[in-house]
Amino acid sequence: MKTLKYLLLAVLICPAITFAKTDNEKIIDSKDDMIIGVSVSQEDLDASKNNHDEDQVLGYNSKTIATTTKYDKLGNVVYSKSIALTPKEELMLENNKNIHILEDGKLHDLSNTNSTNSVYWQYETASKKVEINYVHYTNGNYGIQLTNTWKTNPKTKSYDIIAARWTNYKTTAYYTVSGQQIPTVSEPHVDYTESASANNMVKQPYGAGISQNLYDDYVPMLNTLLITSATDFGTNVYGTYQHATSNISLANSKSYTISSTGLGGVIAHNYSSYYDGMTGVYQ
Fold it and tell me: What pLDDT, on a 0 to 100 scale, did the predictor assign at position 109?
């Protein structure tokens, strides 16, 4: 009687350009920034090699493990999660490479969670450029860095909004928000902190924003937002900068909720017609 051998297979799905392989891992497919690997556990290899009893059937159960790992631009891991797949989920994964494990521990098609109002990392128009970075700091904290760079002097200078969110499968209990408005290098800038500028901020479980009143007398140069947490923000982060094309009060500029269906894929605003609707960014 021939020995039946079932080896444990692990499928690794990593949305990153780099991938650290162990001795037992072999890359079998690569497309865009998706890297897929298959590994066999050393324990199963040893058991397979050492077992020569022709009358014994090895009782290993076939089990597929999926792992989603997110890296920042420096190669630091900002998020990683693994689950065991059912046969139905395994088939779904084979047919759709946009599927990843999110914070609820389930598979999701990221093409459905990424807003159609946002593009990857950076977006630029004739008047301004928006850029987002999702980082893992050396002290262990995580950050969302969002920057708007002005290329022209806007005609209307009222309460613009710079905001960011993360997936609604990840609730971050505690995080801090800060930002800056920098007219030019030689002119004074405005610091936004929770202690001094809470009235300019909107904080919700899945994101936050700052209303920044542009200087009337200076040409704007930079607007920034920084959100920091001791825990990660999940798989993807999203950002937007919305310029007020009509004068709006501070109170009305804050009349929004964090939502993927809103302006820039970040904010659902009750006064959306007052803003330019610029495309958002994500990473």
Answer: 62
